[in-house]
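ok trying this again, last paste got cut off
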Amino acid sequence: MCHEFLCRGARVRVSLDGRVEVLTEPAVRYCPYVAAVYGIRHIDRRAVEHIVRIKMERFGFCCPHRRFDFGLVVPFGSSEIISTCMREGLLDCAVVVCEGAGTVIAWEPDLVQGIGAFLNGILRTCPVEPILRYIEGHGGTVLSPSDARIDQPAGVEEAVELGFRRVAVTVIGPTARDIEAIRELEADHEGAEVAIFSTCNTLVREEDVGYLLMADVVCSSASRLVREQVGPRALMQMGISIPVFILTDRGKRLALSYLAEVRVPFVVSRARLPYIVGEKQPTLVPGATT
């Protein structure tokens, strides 16, 4: 029983006894976010393990004492955009993934932010009873508490069946094909509006770019493919170091609502997208093709 997830393109396993194993080499050598938050300028297996252990120690990541109330905010992050738009009444609920629970349908903005603020791309997980109890007691429900299954299309289906109509959902790069299934579900349910946030795209493949283009909001992560093939299709870009591309009018409305609540100075300017400043971008390991 364990949790597996991606961290800077490396596949990581955390066992229920707290043992951390970095199973593959990271795809990212340098990340401006990692440098700013963790003070790490060169990413290798040891750095990935260090990042994971800090999250476990500070926030209870992958642990029974997992915290949801720490107030951590990532600029232009998906959970930040979604939770803000829920508070503003633009979204009814969010279908997200939490370690120890799998797919979660959440209708409380604080729960969405608490789950997503420091989350990596979860690939598989197992039930952790205190996490399940917290979610069920703080404005959410777990799709499959017996096995903590991750199934975002099924989560959207469940959200609509529960009566929610304006639904946000997060989909990570390795499961980008789910975006097509979610769009089909949206078409099959009259009145349903689904805002798809494509996240954790460092390892996205050429054959998955078409699915990303069906999303509303796409985080570039460290992917050259996303910058080169999704960026030019964007209506709007947030951020420069790790650009977030807004592809639809729906996504633009959500992004502008979020920006209206941001309490930091920023610049609005016309530009040909993607707007890239080379020295501020993540650096991939030589030979990485993402």
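PB: full thing came through this time. The chain has ten helices and 14 strands.
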